[in-house]
Amino acid sequence: MAQGWPFFLLVLFSSYVSNHLVNGERVFLFPQSHKVSSIVSKRYRTAYHFQPPKNWINDPNGPMYYNGIYHEFYQYNPNGSLWGNIIWGHSVSTDLINWIPVEPAIERDIPSDINGCWTGSATIISGDQPIIIYTGADKENRQLQNIVLPKNKSDPYLREWTKAGNNPVIQPVGPGLNASQFRDPTTGWIGPDGLWRIAVGAELNGYGAALLYKSQDFLNWTRVDHPLYSSNASSMWECPDFFAVLPGNSGGLDLSAEIPNGAKHVLKMSLDSCDKYMIGVYDLKRDTFMPDSVLDDRRLWSRIDHGNFYASKSFFDSKKGRRIIWGWTNETDSSSDDVAKGWAGIHAIPRTIWLDSYGKQLLQWPVEEIESLRRNEISHQGLELKKGDLFEIKGTDTSQADVEVDFELTSIDNADPFDPSWLLDVEKHCREAGASVQGGIGPFGLVVLASDNMEEHTAVHFRVYKSQQSYMILMCSDLRWSSLRSGMYTPAYGGFFEFDLQKERKISLRTLIDRSAVESFGGGGRVCIMARVYPVVLVDDGGAHMYAFNNGSTTVRVPQLRAWSMSRAEHK
Ligand SMILES: *[C@@H]1O[C@H](CO)[C@@H](O)[C@H](O)[C@H]1NC(C)=O
Ligand SMILES: *[C@@H]1O[C@H](CO)[C@@H](O)[C@H](O)[C@H]1NC(C)=O
Ligand SMILES: *[C@@H]1O[C@H](CO)[C@@H](O)[C@H](O)[C@H]1NC(C)=O
Ligand SMILES: *[C@@H]1O[C@H](CO)[C@@H](O)[C@H](O)[C@H]1NC(C)=O
Ligand SMILES: *[C@@H]1O[C@H](CO)[C@@H](O)[C@H](O)[C@H]1NC(C)=O
Ligand SMILES: *[C@@H]1O[C@H](CO)[C@@H](O)[C@H](O)[C@H]1NC(C)=O
Ligand SMILES: *[C@H]1O[C@@H](CO)[C@H](O)[C@@H](O)[C@@H]1NC(C)=O
């Protein structure tokens, strides 16, 4: 009500919703009137995830830190909340949380981008020259790579960008290439020969590939005769990202600086509506990426996030010496909802990303800056959750919260056996092993955005399995009961991680609740699950509930649980 909605509409609306709930029917919110939908749009709009003031967004583009300012560009439809007319929106920030929207950076005005200014990346060359390379679509919908430069490097916000005279700088030609499958160039890096390199997502002879290009001056590019990497286990790769990491070191590396001994390289690609990655080494002599292990079945490729997270892009933040990754999270309501809301698409919280000490798995954690939004800390120590226990976490704004909880296993004897075939379809396993299905250890976790009678709720939970050598932890974010509205997309997302329970008995969960976003980090960031939910309970004024629970036969302790209400970030 703080937003000042006409009171009579709320009354009208609540009675409409509750009538339908009483009758046990599924609730639909939009068909009645525009006034109702404007209330809904405010309630589902996020408070601290990145969104421009209105309209459609998709991929994050060209993130960078330059002269004290973070830049976030994004695929943007200036004319509506469905995909189309794509140009580059632009927002700037000093802290990655509060954003100032500025004018669009790249618009469709040359033959090589007249049908769309699509995804690309920023590179800072010669120490202080930002340069962006992006994909344009021409009249025939061929995909070409173009360059823009800031008009005035001294403008702190870099508001205006100028197209290079020699655009397009890369044509979609050459052996094995399909001109409509050639896009999303990476940030550039310098090889031992002093030349710049970029990778471009493509389909090469029908297979997914990151094509490699070289240049002296970032303008005149030559295709290298082999790709950086390609795989016959998939088709088209979008949004490749290539970076270096040091095992066990949460500091980031600048790919163009000297890479220390022992560093590994990561190649990320977007396909099948999710972001996957391989860890390996960059063979400087052959100028190729060599993954540590090659998996023929792409269902087994590692994932950046096991939920709704796509087209991510990372950058090296020279201010704090870390690598940050951003991803796009779409709406999962209907297109007509999006039209009624006037906006669609958010970006996940920017995450610090680094490699575990075994050199096997990327870890991610929300940037520390978001902690500045925390208010009214509540905490509990030494809770014990026996089978069937449900502990209500009270005292925070349950629709805008940050929750951190440690679950400590009192015993690991009862772990059920692990079946490796689950790895092929973890969502299926999360549907079978839901929050109400008792296991030896787990399910235990959080229930968020729950209505009074639990008819609506989203459960984020763990289960522990014993595999031959070690323990495998399943983390699910189950949206099947997240909304009573019909026609929503409500999967049960899930991922597994290996955990040394002999050494460490505590499994941590952090969940960021932001109205229609539920973003969770399990095991210290080993599995991340971003999700969108549209619960009726957010529209109702009663308020949602939040619980910690255990439905496994082994008691779990909660040595520490902390929760905060989250303030609204400034940018809307
Ligand atoms: C948005 O719509 C207006 C009016 O129809 C049109 O003139 C303009 O070119 C459109 N902008 C884009 C980026 O498509
Ligand atoms: C460039 O930006 C700076 C800082 O805003 C401003 O003082 C200067 O006049 C601008 N130069 C031009 C040519 O616009
Ligand atoms: C190129 O890719 C497009 C889009 O996937 C496809 O429709 C077309 O058949 C491909 N062309 C060739 C020659 O393979
Ligand atoms: C572009 O680079 C290639 C390869 O280095 C070189 O042969 C060619 O002359 C260059 N073209 C221009 C216009 O500089
Ligand atoms: C696919 O690539 C692998 C190596 O990565 C190779 O062993 C295999 O023969 C290839 N399969 C086909 C059908 O080309
Ligand atoms: C725990 O299991 C019981 C019995 O199956 C079920 O009624 C309850 O909803 C479950 N708790 C959660 C949080 O799913
Ligand atoms: C986001 O929306 C869901 C539900 O409509 C689709 O299933 C996903 O494919 C889509 N994700 C992307 C990356 O487009």
Describe this protein's structure:
The protein is mainly beta. It folds into 2 domains: 7-33 and 373-566, Jelly Rolls (Sandwich), CATH 2.60.120.560; 55-366, 5 Propeller (Tachylectin-2, Chain A). It has 4 helices and 38 strands. Strands 27, 29, 30, 31, 32, 33 and 37 form a 7-stranded mixed β-sheet that branches. Strands 9, 10, 11, 12, 13 and 14 form a 6-stranded antiparallel β-sheet that branches. β30 (444-450) and β31 (458-466) form a beta hairpin. The longest helix has 16 residues, at 7-22. The protein is globular and about 65 Å long. Mean pLDDT is 92; it is low at 1-36. One 2-acetamido-2-deoxy-beta-D-glucopyranose (NAG) is lined by residues 273, 310, 330, 332, 489. One of its GO terms (molecular function) is fructan beta-(2,1)-fructosidase activity. Its EC number is 3.2.1.153.
List keywords for this structure.
Tachylectin-2, Chain A, 2 domains, 6-stranded antiparallel β-sheet, 7-stranded mixed β-sheet, mainly beta, 4 helices, Jelly Rolls
Average residue pLDDT: 92
* Overall tally of domains: 2
| CATH-defined architecture of the largest domain | 5 Propeller
How would you describe the shape?
globular
Could you describe the largest sheet, including whether it forms a barrel?
A: 7 strands, mixed
Please mark out the parts with pLDDT under 50 across 5 or more consecutive residues, or reply none. 1-36
Are any ligands bound, and if so which? 2-acetamido-2-deoxy-beta-D-glucopyranose
CATH class of the largest domain: Mainly Beta
Give the distance, in angstroms, between the N- and C-terminal Cα atoms.
17 Å
Question: Strand-residue fraction?
Answer: 35-45%
Alpha-beta content class: mainly beta
Q: How many E-type strands?
A: 38
Specify the CATH homologous superfamily of the largest domain. Glycosyl hydrolase domain, family 43
The CATH topology of the largest domain is given as: Tachylectin-2, Chain A
Radius of gyration: 24 Å
* Range of helix content: under 10%
Q: Count of helical segments?
A: 4
Pfam family, one: Glyco_hydro_32N
EC number: 3.2.1.153
Family: Belongs to the glycosyl hydrolase 32 family.
Keywords: Disulfide bond, Glycoprotein, Glycosidase, Hydrolase, Signal
